[in-house]
């Protein structure tokens, strides 16, 4: 036994797409038992319209169908790399009649159907222009013959919308002025359905910056000198030099090794010599807009350089102890002399008194 109660809980929605885009239609049905879901494509107009069932892998593998039947029936049809011939009416059909696929019998219960349109347009052409005069760059986008209605436009930079640059009119001309050297990828977006956009590249000569303007290292050790590129496009070539002499930096060189990685270059100098390697090194980058360079000063210290601060502290301690010792040595004799003087005075006074007492006693006895 089966129930005739079959219904859609989600129907496919019509879409407007551009050539080479992708599209996806989805539908869900309920019933007991769970209905089967099929996808059909309608070609032509009434009364000559014909329907063709779509299967997974149709249209040279550009059609993919995924269906599940657990609590209810769900099915999704996916189209890749759309062409103009993909425009048309797509129909989601569902039925749980046991005779639904028997060509010799008419199903007791007809298929229920839900339709959606996929409309494919050729993308409108955008004519772009980048004009750089001094430090001012003017970007221009001109939308020609939009296939569908236009409702506004705006600019983006590096995938982020620029504030204050949204237009709500139907103008097909969009302009943006950069008043400084602000490199990157800019995108003009026109509000068609679907939206139409174009990318404009603002390129500048390399702006090379050192990771550190100066480096310090010890003798017989190695050091890494780094410089980075803060502009667009990336460097096509990196060059290191010292005193006007280009450093090869190949793998067979035991003294210098250069490692480039897009917007960064590293010069490694091994077995440092205090006299020979204490120099100013130049890092240069080159791209299609020109060249840019920066300098890094390297100072190589003696291996004993680390001992000097310690020796300085030791010397300060020795000087301080010596001063204290000399001061104490000079102070003690003076203090002892003062102590002797203060102790002898009372003794002399007592002796004089005793002598006077003795004479008095002698006179009295006479």
User: What gross morphology would you assign?
Assistant: elongated
How far apart are the first and last residues' alpha carbons, in Å? 171 Å
CA radius of gyration: 47 Å
Number of helices: 3
- SSE order, one letter for each helix or strand: EEEEEHEEEEEEEEEEEEEEEEEEHEEH
Task: Set down the secondary structure blueprint.
Elements: E1 7-10, E2 15-18, E3 23-30, E4 36-43, E5 50-54, H1 58-61, E6 63-69, E7 73-79, E8 88-95, E9 112-121, E10 125-133, E11 136-144, E12 153-157, E13 160-167, E14 173-178, E15 184-190, E16 196-202, E17 208-210, E18 214-218, E19 223-229, E20 237-242, E21 245-247, E22 256-260, E23 264-269, H2 274-277, E24 280-287, E25 290-301, H3 307-365
Parallel strand pairs: 2-9, 18-25
Antiparallel strand pairs: 1-3, 3-7, 4-5, 4-8, 6-7, 8-9, 10-11, 11-14, 12-13, 12-15, 15-16, 17-19, 19-23, 20-21, 20-24, 22-23, 24-25
């Amino acid at each position: 036994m089966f129930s005739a109660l079959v219904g859609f809980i989600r129907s496919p929605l019509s879409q407007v797409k551009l050539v080479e885009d992708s599209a996806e239609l989805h539908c869900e049905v309920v019933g007991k038992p769970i209905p089967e879901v099929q996808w059909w494509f309608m070609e032509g107009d009434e009364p000559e319209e014909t329907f063709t069932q779509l299967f997974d892998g149709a249209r040279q593998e550009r059609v993919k169908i995924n269906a599940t039947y657990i609590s209810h029936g769900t099915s999704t049809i996916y189209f890749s790399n759309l062409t103009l011939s993909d425009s048309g009416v797509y129909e989601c059909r569902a039925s749980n009649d046991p005779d639904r696929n028997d060509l010799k019998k008419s199903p007791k219960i007809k298929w229920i159907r839900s339709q959606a349109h996929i409309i494919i347009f050729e993308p409108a052409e955008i004519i772009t222009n980048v004009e750089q005069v001094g430090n001012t760059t003017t970007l221009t986008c001109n939308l020609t013959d939009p296939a569908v209605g236009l409702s506004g436009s705006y600019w983006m930079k590096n995938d982020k919308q620029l504030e204050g640059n949204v237009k709500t009119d139907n103008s097909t001309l969009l302009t943006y002025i950069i008043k400084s050297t602000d490199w990157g990828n800019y995108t003009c977006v026109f509000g068609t359905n679907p939206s139409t956009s174009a990318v404009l590249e603002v390129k500048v000569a390399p702006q090379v910056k050192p990771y550190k303007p100066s480096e310090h290292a010890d003798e017989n050790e190695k050091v890494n000198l780094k410089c980075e590129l803060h502009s667009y496009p990336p460097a096509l070539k990196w060059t290191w030099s010292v005193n006007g002499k280009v450093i090869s930096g190949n793998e067979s060189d035991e003294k210098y090794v250069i490692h480039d990685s897009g917007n960064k270059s590293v010069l490694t100098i091994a077995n440092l010599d205090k006299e020979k390697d204490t120099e100013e090194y130049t890092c240069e980058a080159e791209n299609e807009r020109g060249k840019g360079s920066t300098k890094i000063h390297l100072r190589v210290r003696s291996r004993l350089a680390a001992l000097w601060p310690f020796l300085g502290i030791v010397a300060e301690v020795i000087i301080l102890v010596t001063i204290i010792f000399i001061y104490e040595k000079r102070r003690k004799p003076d203090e002892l002399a003062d102590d002797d003087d203060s102790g002898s005075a009372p003794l002399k006074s007592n002796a004089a008194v005793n002598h006077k007492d003795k004479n008095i006693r002698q006179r009295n006895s006479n």
